[in-house]
Design brief:
CATH topology of the largest domain: Rossmann fold
Radius of gyration: 28 Å
Structural class: alpha/beta
CATH class of the largest domain: Alpha Beta
Low-confidence stretches: 40-58
Strand content: 25-35%
Length: 464
């Protein structure tokens, strides 16, 4: 006689199972999330459920390996998005069978960027835009406002995973856009959308589909108050690329890659928001410089930095004031506070400039966040100028990394930085010593001054 299967209780938040009902899940700690589920359905879920990837025939499949040399390299080909800045951040285009997670603050332009991508992507196949947050009329109204060609865009307004899978099998799109992952739900993963288990389960199903059908997937995700993607951290491990959309106080938008299996994470995409949507900034050379007439005020320095494969000139602004309460502080949201404090300590130790009783404020014009080490010499010059009241010479650019001993270390792609400065009319360039002879020969129009330490850099800039 066949024994009767007893039901189990499964947490709708994390998927933990218990033989009896509990008020609180012992795994994730959530209250009232255990739901009664048949034991057979749990077992089927673990085996694949007999669905499109499950067995269902009773025959055990034998896995087969194959040599890497037999794989066709075209399987990893890319699709041009039609937006140059997005392709730059992705490493050259949208990778087939890849999953891309896009996060950003509300209203920053995530949906606008992906709708523009859907309209401009260079493919003969169809693009499926799935939204659980907007209606079809709202999407159409936004596409008309942006003057987008919507002929190849298929839309589906729902977050129900089984319905989305049916649409995927029917349309067979080349690019799939899900806006957003927090609206996805399925009865297999619980009742309420937006839970950790829902996002993990639904994302895994969609990622598996695009990898089987030679398509590409975009997942839009909300962010928390701390600016990180909301939901399980495993969601970032499941995808191939994680993009963060940032904005400044102006209309500029910055697209960065926090993870990229198919390209560099050093590249940055720069956009401006206009009535026509997001416009790519192809040449940001003058975007982060302030145009002034007359002498520079104290505390202003121009640093040549690298953002991926691009050399940019950015204006570093520093201000020092007596510390309040006897304890000095560093206020900097565009350059890491620890880097500013380290450069200030090196200045105080090497040059004897007293900064331990000063509050230091640092800003970068244009609102761009700088993480590159080549900014350190320019940052030191800016802080020194602010503390002493001596302005830097006009049309002078600076690049170099600082050690704790005050030495100036070489930086990558110095020739590219000097060339950018030369094209923008800068006449003097302060750089690390080493290959200055070659640089002077190549860039004879720009006076390159090679320095070995912080003292010689200050002497070259301020004449002391």
């Amino acid at each position: 006689m066949k024994s009767k299967q007893r039901p189990v209780f499964r947490c709708s938040s994390c998927g933990h199972t218990e033989p009896k009902w509990l008020g609180r899940c012992p795994d994730c700690g959530e209250w009232n999330t255990l739901v009664e589920t048949a034991a057979a359905s749990i077992a089927e879920l673990g085996r694949g459920g007999g669905g499109r990837r499950g067995g269902g025939t009773g025959e055990k499949a034998i896995p087969q390996s194959f040599p890497l040399s037999s794989v066709d390299s075209d399987e990893g080909s890319r699709i041009e998005s039609g937006i140059g800045e997005l392709d730059r951040v992705l490493g050259g285009g949208i990778m087939r069978r890849g999953a891309i997670l896009v996060g950003g603050e509300p209203g920053i332009g995530k949906s606008t960027l992906l709708l523009q991508t859907a309209a401009s992507v260079k493919t003969k196949g169809r693009v499926l835009y799935v939204t659980g947050e907007e209606s079809a009329g709202q999407l159409k109204m936004r596409a008309d406002r942006l003057l987008l060609s919507s002929g190849k865009i298929e839309i589906f307004c729902s977050g129900n995973l089984p319905d989305i899978e049916n649409i995927l099998e029917s349309v067979k799109p080349v690019v799939v856009i899900i806006d957003s992952v927090q609206t996805l739900y399925t009865a297999e993963a619980g009742l309420a959308p937006g839970t950790v288990n829902q996002m993990k389960y639904c994302s895994f199903e969609l990622i598996s589909w695009v990898k089987e059908h030679d398509a590409a997937l975009f997942l839009v995700a909300h962010v928390t108050k701390e600016g990180v993607i909301a939901g399980p951290k495993t969601l970032e491990h499941m995808v191939d690329t994680v993009l963060y959309f940032e904005q400044t106080d102006t209309d500029k938008r910055f697209l960065r890659a926090a993870k990229n299996r198919f390209g560099s994470v050093d590249e940055i995409g720069i956009f401006t928001m206009s009535e026509r949507g997001l416009c790519a900034v192809e040449d940001p050379s003058l975007l982060f410089l302030v145009r002034r007439e007359g002498k520079l005020p104290p505390g202003i320095a121009t640093a040549a930095v690298l953002e991926g494969s691009r050399a940019l000139l950015v204006e570093i602004q520093a201000l020092t004031v007596p510390a309040k309460g006897g304890m000095s502080r560093v206020y900097s949201d565009r350059i890491d506070n620890a880097r500013v404090a380290r450069v200030a300590a090196t200045l105080e130790k090497t040059l004897g400039v007293r900064l331990s009783d000063q509050d230091i404020y640092v800003n970068v014009a244009g609102g761009i966040r700088i993480n590159e080490v080549g900014v350190e010499l320019g940052l030191a010059a800016s802080i020194y100028s602010a503390r002493t009241g001596l302005p830097l010479p006009q049309r002078a650019a600076i690049a170099g990394e600082l050690t704790l001993a005050g030495e100036v270390m070489p930086v990558r792609r110095l020739s590219g930085r000097i060339k950018t400065a030369l094209n923008l009319g800068f006449e003097t360039f302060i750089c690390p010593s080493g290959d200055e002879a070659t640089l002077k020969e190549v860039f004879s129009q720009c006076r390159c001054t090679a320095v070995q330490d912080l003292k010689s850099a200050v002497a070259a800039l301020f004449g002391s």
